[in-house]
Structure formats: C-alpha cells, structure tokens
Design brief:
Layout lengths: L6 E3 L4 H10 L3 E4 L5 H6 L7 E4 L9 E3 L3 E4 L5 H6 L1 H6 L1 H8 L4 H6 L2 H7 L6 H7 L3 E5 L4 E5 H4 E3 L2 E2 L6 E8 L5 E9 L8 E12 L2 E10 L6 E2 L1 H7 L6 H8 L16 H22 L3
Parallel strand pairs: 1-3, 2-3
Antiparallel strand pairs: 4-5, 5-10, 6-7, 6-10, 8-9, 11-12, 12-13, 13-14
Helix pairs in contact: 5-8, 10-11, 11-12
Length: 289
C-alpha cells in the first residue's frame, strides 16, 4: 500500500513546528515515523501535510533534572534502552524500550512518539503509566503538563491537542525502596513484537511493607490501563510470593478485556494475571538494589 499524496515540511525549531500546526488543521507531526507512516500506508491516516521534527537540534537528550529524568521528543528507543540514567531510575521503561519493535525500529523510532501514538499493544506507554510519568505538551499559545493518568484517552488517542507537540517525557527519579519492571508475551513469542499481553509494575517498600504500587497493562484493552485491583490487594502486604500471587489474580478487575486475533478475552485475562505477577516480583526485587 502507498499513502495518498501529501506535502512535507521539516521545521528547524519547535516554535516553527507549533506555528505550522496552528495554521494547518490537517497536518500530522512526525518524529521517527515508525508509527505514522505505516498508518498512512494503510490509509488510516491521510494528512495533507506531514510536519517532520526529526531535524530539530537538541531534542534527543536524556537529562537528570533533579527530581525527574527528562527525555526529549527525539530520544530513540535504543537510547532509552541503553541509558544508565533510565535504567537506574526507571528500569521498566528501559526494558520496554529494549523490547520495542526490531533493531531498525529501535534505531529510528522515538520513546515520546510511542507514548503519543497510544497503540493498544505498545510497550513504553504502559511503563510510562506505571511510573507516573508526566508529558509536557507545547503549542504556539501555551505549554502544559499532562499526568500519565490523564494522557492515554483511547485507542490511538492521547490528550494531546492537534496543535501541540509532545516536547518532553518526565519520569520521577527513583526513591528509597522503589523499584520497577516490565514483562510481556510478544506476538512472535518471548519478548518479540507487540505485546499479546504485558505489564509494567512500580512499587515502594518501607521497612518490608508495600506502601504504594502501580501496575499498568498493555495489549489487553483499548489503551494502556492501570490494574487498580492489583495495587489495592498488594499495598499493606509484605510483598511475599503469596501476597504477589493473590494481588496478580486481580489484574483484570474492572478492566474491559478485548478479544483479538491473538487471543480470547479469557486467555488475555489469564495472561494479565501472569505478567502482572512477573512484573511485580521483578519490581520488588529491583526495589532492594
């Protein structure tokens, strides 16, 4: 398949990009192109104008900002996966980035692009949700911060306005007793390809007790979604194997699990519990390092 005819522009600054989006209502933003171009080839999206921010300088930085780690909009998946700073503070995100797509996709695609795309089976949006990330959006008129809990709206739909650019992903710095992890079953087996089902987990332990936890699922619903039942069951426990197993059984509580070509709703609900448990065990282990 080939996309419909479109115009192309490569702005040199974020300000130029937001100005173009403001005056061109049928424009679409592109960073790495790993999400947008396949949809254009399938003609699910047919923008009149593609605004490529891939040539804007200094947007590919991962920085320590004191209380959070900052990822710019052109940080590639491979850079996120290979960053010591990300591994130290957000192992769930580093792992998810390392399991995104294939080598070519990881070398070209961007973490912010994956988050903004909100694919139902993507890896990094679930990690961002579990880690309580904040997305920074900029338009010609304003800059605003969007919590992860409010960012993922529906399938392929984020809280970004058409005139906004996602200019930064902020991940809270790791605190004492905190840990995170990500695990999934990929469509080609193991950790390859999109997730049939996956889970990102973040926990905080104080004196051997779980005082806070977040688990986000991917691949099983219309968007990355928090498994609130898991956190409710785990908080206040000692994080032991029986406690994790009991909490993981509640992974699909209150969540609409969707059947697709890769599994029935029953099967995906089962996988949600399996991978919620695996991610929690790894996150609890990570909290002690």
């Amino acid at each position: 398949m080939f996309p419909r005819e479109f115009d192309y522009v490569a702005p040199q600054t974020v300000e130029e990009a937001t100005a173009i989006l403001q005056r061109e209502p049928d424009a679409k933003l592109m960073a790495g192109g790993m999400s947008l171009l396949p949809l254009m080839k399938l003609r699910l999206f047919s923008p009149a104008l593609v605004v490529d921010i891939g040539r804007i300088a200094d947007l590919d930085r991962i920085e320590d900002r004191g209380d959070h780690v900052s990822l710019g909009p052109l940080v590639r998946h491979r850079a996120t996966a290979g960053s010591a700073l990300v591994h130290e503070n957000a192992d769930a995100l580093a792992t998810a980035a390392g399991w995104t797509g294939d080598v070519q996709v990881r070398n070209r695609g961007t973490t912010c692009g994956s988050v903004a795309h909100v694919d139902v089976a993507a890896d990094q949006p679930a990690a961002a949700l579990a880690l309580s990330a904040t997305m920074v959006a900029r338009s010609a008129a304003h800059t605003r911060e969007i919590p992860a809990d409010d960012f993922f709206v529906d399938t392929l739909t984020s809280a970004l306005e058409p005139t906004e650019v996602l200019v930064e992903l902020r991940i809270p710095k790791r605190g004492a007793g905190e840990g995170s992890a990500y695990d999934k079953l990929g469509r080609r087996g193991g950790h390859s390809d999109y997730a049939i089902a996956g889970a990102a987990a973040w926990v905080r332990l104080v004196e051997g007790s779980v005082v806070d936890a977040r688990v986000a699922l991917t691949g099983v619903s219309t968007k990355p979604v928090l498994a609130l039942g898991v956190a409710e069951a785990l908080i206040g426990t000692d994080g032991s194997e029986p406690a994790v197993a009991a909490a993981a059984r509640r992974a699909s509580d209150g969540i609409t699990i969707l059947e697709d070509l890769f599994g029935s709703a029953e099967y995906k609900a089962h996988l949600s519990s399996v991978f919620a448990g695996r991610a929690l065990r790894a996150a609890i282990q990570d909290s002690s390092r």
